[in-house]
């Protein structure tokens, strides 16, 4: 009998398996697709030699993750590559605000009226970032806070809607950049705790940047899988689990799946009936005949570029996708250009380019034209550089990964109480109705992103049980 079986080789499933194996437990992992990685994969989606990330591409949460930082992933080939700027937010007039490693450079890019407000916003948290990120990502109860005072202070700043926090800024440069940070979880700006999201992304940039892995996001998954194998864990791919009977006997089962799939597989009936899935994205992977011709020079130096002209434009786009059930006319877009630092991703002189805009869950239209019109505002001549595109709407995303229900890349709406308390209102979110079955996907805290912390936290719950029995 195995100690633990993990279902799903996304970053959380892989991390859970590694954490258990490194504590001496026997572990086998089963993945439906032919490669490991889930939302951290790299594939030739367009033309030969162009290596695209179909899902995650930039890793502020990965490089700052307490779980990843405690694992020897560099020894297994993971190399974080940092651009001159982690992120730039260009404007139609050819200027840009930036999120730099330096607080001073970031504040200066907002202009004199907001520089001080920004420094006062992030200043108190930065010296405590390592304990804060660990405390924040271990909520609700997996570890006692190491620095409850800073955590409480962070809660006071971050728990109200981001629109409150945005009132600290007077000009559009800071407002648009910060609204864009909040939009990374696809929740309306006036939602509960959305201020915390913006703050986490900003602090992550100042602390350790927003790097891309050399060779693409697959490098994170491959490093985790290689380490797992070295620890004696077994990895089985092309193995979709439909029932618990499909799995070998084990003392614990850990699911890196959606709550809906887990309920179906384990026979939990309507245990997760109240769980809500959120909006989706429309994703385009481009093969380009050279770099994106951004007007703003800062945008040419950053790996991640946010595309949205103002807080109002970003807010309208988010509301359209998440509340009004329609695609935005002017999508807010997150784009990543790994070629700024990684020459291995495309043939010489060419580039891969990654971009998505938000659309409603299950939406079946084509956002390509709206996205490219939006890009042309900030990078005139963009369309002339396109050699090929691979397009994924909600249906394609859901087919690529069963966790993206209706194309929801967060595996559950990151809004309302469900942003913090997921998949149910519980202090033990990794537990399920069956004492030997656990859930570790991004449907559990701390939620979406490639950080492995849901897997890390769930593994703690598992090893406590294994030691008891
Ligand atoms: C387009 C897009 C862009 C993104 N950009 C970023 C980004 O830049 N940075 C970032 O940090 N995050 C990003 N994300 C989010 C990130 O990819 C996810 O939050 C993260 O991968 C979640 O990890 P996970 O382990 O919980 O689940 P997943 O990565 O979704 O992995 C789940 C795995 O379980 C497998 N599985 C599911 N059901 C079964 C079954 N029944 N049997 C066997 N296997 C099963 C799936 O095939 C999959 O491999 C993005 C996601 C998408 C789609």
From TrEMBL:
Signal peptide: none annotated. It holds the Pfam family NAD_binding_8. InterPro entries: FAD/NAD-bd_sf. This is Dehydrogenase. It comes from Streptomyces filipinensis.
């Amino acid at each position: 009998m195995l100690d633990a079986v993990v279902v799903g080789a996304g970053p959380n499933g892989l991390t859970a398996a590694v954490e258990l194996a490194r504590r001496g437990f026997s572990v086998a992992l089963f993945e439906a697709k032919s490669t490991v990685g889930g939302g951290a994969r790299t594939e030739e989606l367009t033309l030969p030699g162009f290596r695209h990330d179909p899902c995650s591409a930039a890793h502020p949460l990965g490089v700052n993750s307490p779980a990843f930082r405690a694992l020897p992933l560099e020894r297994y080939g993971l190399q974080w590559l940092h651009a001159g700027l982690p992120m730039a937010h260009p404007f139609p007039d050819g200027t840009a605000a930036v999120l730099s490693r330096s607080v001073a450079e970031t504040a200066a890019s907002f202009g004199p009226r907001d520089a001080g407000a920004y420094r006062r916003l992030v200043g108190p948290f930065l010296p405590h970032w390592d304990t804060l990120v660990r405390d924040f990502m271990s909520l609700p109860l997996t570890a006692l806070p190491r620095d409850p005072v800073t955590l409480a202070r962070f809660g006071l700043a971050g728990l109200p809607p981001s629109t409150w926090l945005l009132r600290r800024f007077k000009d559009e440069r800071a407002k648009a950049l910060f609204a864009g940070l909040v939009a990374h979880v696809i929740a309306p700006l006036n939602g509960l705790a959305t201020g915390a999201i913006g703050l986490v992304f900003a602090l992550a940039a100042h602390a350790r940047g927003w790097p891309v892995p050399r060779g693409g996001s697959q490098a994170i998954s491959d490093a985790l899988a290689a380490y797992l194998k070295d620890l004696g864990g077994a990895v089985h791919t092309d193995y979709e689990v439909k029932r618990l009977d499909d799995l070998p006997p084990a003392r614990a089962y850990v699911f890196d799946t959606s709550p809906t799939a887990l309920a179906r597989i384990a026979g939990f009936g309507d245990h997760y009936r109240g769980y809500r899935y959120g909006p989706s994205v429309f994703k385009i992977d481009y093969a380009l005949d050279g770099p994106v011709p951004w007007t703003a020079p800062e945008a040419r130096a950053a790996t991640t570029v946010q595309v949205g002209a103002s807080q109002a434009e970003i807010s309208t786009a988010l509301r359209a996708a998440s509340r009004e059930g329609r695609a935005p006319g002017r999508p807010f877009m997150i784009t990543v250009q790994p070629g700024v630092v990684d020459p291995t991703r495309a043939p010489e002189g060419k580039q891969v380019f990654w971009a998505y805009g938000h659309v409603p869950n299950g939406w079946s239209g084509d956002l390509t034209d709206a996205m490219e019109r939006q890009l042309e505002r900030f990078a005139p001549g963009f369309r002339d550089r396109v050699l090929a595109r691979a397009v994924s709407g909600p249906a394609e995303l859901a087919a690529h990964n069963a966790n993206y229900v209706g194309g929801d890349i967060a595996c559950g709406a990151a809004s309302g109480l469900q942003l913090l308390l997921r998949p149910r209102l519980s202090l033990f979110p990794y537990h399920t109705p069956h004492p030997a079955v656990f859930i570790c996907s991004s449907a559990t805290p701390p939620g979406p992103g490639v950080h492995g912390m849901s897997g890390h936290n769930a593994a703690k719950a598992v090893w406590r049980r294994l030691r008891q029995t």
